[in-house]
Write a structure and sequence with these properties.
- The protein has two helices and three strands.
- By secondary structure, the protein is of the alpha+beta class.
- A three-stranded antiparallel beta sheet has the order 1-2-3.
């Protein structure tokens, strides 16, 4: 059976934890952050656990 190709865009944006959860950066960090409150800016620095409804993304990064 042939190998499954990894979707490179997904592999650059999403990481898989040891338990199989998917982690991604918080959105909206590039610009226009001066108007955000300090709490919002701090929360955007964290990686977020993606919901379980995005389990199809695991098929795009099979070897990660």
């Amino acid at each position: 059976m042939p190998k499954v190709k990894t979707h490179k865009g997904t592999s650059k944006r999403i990481k898989r934890t040891k338990k199989g959860k998917l982690m991604a950066r918080a959105v909206g960090q590039d610009h226009f952050n001066s108007r955000e409150s300090g709490k919002t800016t701090k929360n955007k620095r964290r990686d977020l656990v993606l919901s379980k409804t995005t389990h199809k993304l695991k098929t795009l990064i099979p070897y990660k």
